[in-house]
Hints:
GO terms for molecular function: ABC-type quaternary ammonium compound transporting activity; ATP binding; ATP hydrolysis activity. The protein is α/β, with parallel strands linked by helices.
Amino acid sequence: MSSTRTSRHGSDPVGSASTVAPGDVLIRFEDVRKEFRNQTVAVDDLDLEVRKGELLVLVGPSGCGKSTTLRMVNRLVEPTGGRILLDGADIMSTDAVALRRRVGYVIQNVGLFPHKTVAQNVATVPGLLGWDRKRTRARVEELLTLVGLAPETYSKRFPHELSGGERQRVGVARALAVDPPVLLMDEPFGAVDPEGRRRLQTEFRRIQSELGTTVMLVTHDIDEAVLLGDRVAVFSKGGIIEQIDTPLRLLSQPANAFVENFIGAGRSMRMLGLGDVARDDLRSLDAVHPGAELASIPLGTTLDEAFAELAVSETGAVIVTEGDQPVGLLTADDLLSSLRRLVAEDHREALAG
Ligand SMILES: Nc1ncnc2c1ncn2[C@@H]1O[C@H](COP(=O)(O)OP(=O)(O)OP(=O)(O)O)[C@@H](O)[C@H]1O
């Protein structure tokens, strides 16, 4: 995907017209309950705050109430108790159709209109809002470029002429069309093959932070949760939040056995995936024996990738480079120090606020 920035378009009743500053609460669940007609209580007594500009991931086992929680925000499911405030206003006193135009929604398999072209799909909400043709066209081109689909190649294609990953990109572009202040995503990358998924996830993370969109994303995949989330809420049955924390804190300090169990055995490796090799953690190149043949990795390599290199290194060390210059040596001990630094920094941030 390109790094094109999109400009803000259209009226934005919850975003630009709002008094909510980045980091303040944009969505607030207060004692929210959803009991379906068959008496299933999907969510009970839920209190949750989503801060403006954050990507909050809801993760948990199947049937624990994640999708129900998400779908209550745009009133696809109506709460039977408590209230949900969006920018201070109770969603139940907001017109449901108007609400859904302002709150983007992306689901697995996207649900693109099969008989409409890519451009027409992306233009759906601008069309409903009565945007003129020129403005709509410019926005569609801007968004397709943003999600990495060259408009000249893709605009006129139909959904069946796209790969799963491309369809998912169109779904994201469509949801972003009128620059919604809130984007709800339910297993958005679930139908994409594992390799394409990691790329889409990383690209989506970049787009989200560029646009500053507030995102609630549902997944059952803990790896996706820790890769994408600013914060991650771990749910258990009945919409109970067992822990809500930064990915690192979740991995380093699971609140209870349920969370620990849900995170599973790959906890340490997942933690390593959250950090990068930094200059401060390296030791001097003087320690390298003349004639030793060492593998090299660039500064900024993730710690899990560095670990994989160290695991196959006969000397137990790798050279770290910047550009084509070696800048230091990394050993398993240094990797451990990096991880400790990461956890300590996260802990300090938590204490600070
Ligand atoms: N329309 C409905 N009518 C009755 N029960 C429902 C309805 N929708 C969901 N449920 C039930 O509510 C509970 C929570 O469902 P929900 O879809 O929110 O879970 P989830 O955590 O998103 O699960 P998954 O990861 O499998 O999608 C489940 O027990 C489900 O069977």
